[in-house]
Automatic annotation (TrEMBL):
InterPro entries: T_IF-3_N_sf, Translation_initiation_fac3_CS, Translation_initiation_fac_3, Translation_initiation_fac_3_N
Coiled-coil region(s): none
GO terms for biological process, alphabetical: ribosome disassembly
Top-rank taxon: Bacteria
GO molecular function (one): ribosome binding
Keywords, in A-Z order: Initiation factor, Protein biosynthesis
UniProt-listed PANTHER family: TRANSLATION INITIATION FACTOR IF-3, TRANSLATION INITIATION FACTOR IF-3, MITOCHONDRIAL
GO cellular component: cytosol; membrane
Lineage: Bacteria, Bacillati, Bacillota, Clostridia, Peptostreptococcales
Any Pfam family matching the protein: IF3_N
Gene source species: Peptoanaerobacter stomatis
Stated name of the protein: Translation initiation factor IF-3
Domain Translation initiation factor 3 N-terminal: 8-76
């Protein structure tokens, strides 16, 4: 199982980020600190999803749920693969 570790919450140290809301809506460019405050006010996490863009793109989401969904998809994918001998 390969889950790429992403920067979340206080690990994000960029001055400015492009923020996407939990419903996928564009919230614009703002400081990482403001985005973290917004995410924490909603009891969600700020996750950097595209670190190489300028400014980096972050999304407000439930990171635990996101990791669970990714792991579930990978497990399902492995289950559906057939091994050829």
């Amino acid at each position: 199982m390969i889950i790429k570790e992403q920067q979340i919450n206080e690990q994000i140290r960029d001055k400015e980020i492009r923020l996407i809301g939990e419903e996928g809506e564009q919230l614009g460019i703002m400081s990482a600190k403001d985005a973290q405050n917004l995410a924490s006010s909603k009891n969600l996490d700020l996750v950097k999803i595209s670190p190489n863009s300028n400014p980096p793109v972050c999304k407000i989401m439930d990171y635990g749920k996101y990791k669970y969904e990714i792991a579930k998809k990978e497990k399902e994918s492995k289950k559906n693969k057939k091994s050829y001998l």
